[in-house]
Amino acid sequence: MTVEEDVVARGTGAILKGLDMLAGTVQDMRLANGETAALGWLQITLGECRYPVDNPAGEAYAWIVVHDKPGEAPIFQGWMVASSPALDALDHPRFDVWVTHCTTD
């Protein structure tokens, strides 16, 4: 059995969406690699975003770190996959975060 792996390139950042389930609002977040944004009181840091070389708009793999409180251990740390947001999802009672695509500019 042979497993094919996507040949990926590193994007300059990513577009994330954040949902506040209590307020019913969605926030677009454009982050550069290494940048942090706030969603409510959560601090969301994009480590990097990778995308398939042959299909940059079709998939995105983003390394995300989410802190609930500064100085404490992250409540989420891992790769989020645009086409499968439930594969490795943030488990939070109020907020949801997912990646839509990488940026290349």
**pLDDT average, as an integer?**
93
Low-confidence stretches: none
Radius of gyration: 14 Å
Query: Main sheet?
Result: 5 strands, antiparallel
In terms of DSSP E residues, the strand content is over 45%
Number of helices: 0
Percentage of residues in helical conformation = under 10%
The helix-and-strand class reads mainly beta
Shape: globular
Explain what you see.
This protein is mainly β. It has one domain (8-103). It has strands at 8-10, 13-20, 25-32, 36-39, 42-52, 61-67, 76-81, 95-103. Strands 1, 4, 5, 6 and 7 form a five-stranded antiparallel β-sheet that branches. It has a three-stranded antiparallel β-sheet with strand order 3-2-8, with no helix packed on it. A hairpin with an 8-residue loop joins β5 (42-52) and β6 (61-67). The termini are far apart.
What would a concise description of this structure say?
With 105 residues, the protein is mainly beta. It has strands spanning 8-10, 13-20, 25-32, 36-39, 42-52, 61-67, 76-81, 95-103. It is globular, with a radius of gyration of 14 Å.
Using brief descriptors, characterize the structure shown.
105 residues, five-stranded antiparallel sheet, three-stranded antiparallel sheet
SSE layout and pairing:
Layout: E1 8-10, E2 13-20, E3 25-32, E4 36-39, E5 42-52, E6 61-67, E7 76-81, E8 95-103
Antiparallel strand pairs: 1-5, 2-3, 2-8, 4-5, 5-6, 6-7
